[in-house]
Design brief:
single chain; binds adenosine monophosphate
């Protein structure tokens, strides 16, 4: 396993692998890895000859008041976690390498990114799809792996691949959870013991919604009203949004008569957490 920080070197590594006819699997991450990330890496390893994991805390996707500076970083720890998985390359460029001072081209999605997290974090998805487009150009993967945990993100990336005719298959894998079913997230490391316990309310609420919708309650307004009552039982949680939308178009729905995804975002203290669940 080698660590490459230089774009030129990364490209020539890929060129050599391609010459040998190898397939390339790619897992983009911001590091501080947990079992959720590692599940994507294992899937990449199964499907591809060469696996590249990028570790890059992308400044473009953080708002001015967000946690870019304090986002957890520990490359040595990440290397130790990745070593046993037999990957080929960690690509970990600096912010200057990816975004030199004269950088001026961005990719933008204009529909799926309008609601949910996109509404609360203006510019976030522009930052995400710009960096992912750059990473796809550098690594030229056959398959790239994303987590269902960031449902809106994987929807937008799928749309970008379609709209820009990119030659990469997107594979979305289920959310990996802690023992108490809280979704694994690098940001969980910010939570105090009390906050960590309170964070269970996100998935509890999503399960409540799923159960109601799958037990024949079709009125989404009614489902969401009841779910919000449940959320009030956790005073540490401050809701940002709770929505039930079409899994592909992300359009909000009134009736639970087709497959849906319920998504939640909110704050516990200063930590912003998200989660989602698929319904039928
Ligand atoms: P991040 O490092 O948070 O940018 O995440 C990198 C990738 O890992 C994204 O595709 C995420 O959706 C995915 N991911 C993050 N948390 C989880 C999780 N708990 N289960 C599965 N995938 C995850």
């Amino acid at each position: 396993m080698q660590t490459i920080t230089d774009i030129k070197k990364m490209k020539s590594f890929i060129k050599e692998a391609r010459k040998k006819g190898k397939t390339i699997g790619f897992v983009p991450t911001m590091g501080y890895l947990h079992s959720g990330h590692l599940s994507l890496v294992s899937a990449a390893k199964k499907s591809s000859d060469v696996v590249v994991v990028s570790i890059f805390v992308n400044p473009l996707q953080f708002g001015p008041k967000e946690d870019l500076k304090k986002y957890p970083r520990d490359l040595e720890r990440d290397k130790k976690l990745l070593a046993p998985l037999g990957i080929d390359v960690i690509f970990s460029p600096t912010a200057e390498e990816m975004f030199p001072p004269d950088f001026s081209c961005y990719a933008e999605e204009t529909k799926l990114s309008k609601g949910l997290c996109g509404k609360k974090r203006p510019g976030h998805f522009k930052g995400v799809i710009t960096v992912v487009l750059k990473l796809f150009q550098i690594i030229k993967p056959d398959i790239a792996f994303f987590g269902a945990k960031d449902w809106q993100q994987q929807s937008i990336i799928r749309k970008k691949v379609k709209d820009f005719h990119l030659d990469v298959e997107i594979n979305t894998l289920p959310t990996v959870r802690e023992e108490d079913e809280v979704a694994m997230s690098s940001r969980n490391s910010y939570l105090s013991k009390k906050e960590r316990k309170a964070s269970r309310i996100l998935y509890q609420t999503l399960c409540f919604i799923k159960e109601m919708a799958e037990n024949d309650e079709k009125d989404i307004k009614k489902i969401l009203k009841n779910a919000k009552k449940l959320l009030k039982s956790e005073p540490l949680f401050k809701l940002e949004y709770l929505e039930m939308v079409d899994p592909e178009t992300l359009d909000p729905k009134d009736t639970a008569d087709k497959p849906l995804v319920a998504l939640i975002a909110g704050f516990i203290g200063k930590t912003r957490l998200i989660d989602n669940i698929l319904i039928r």
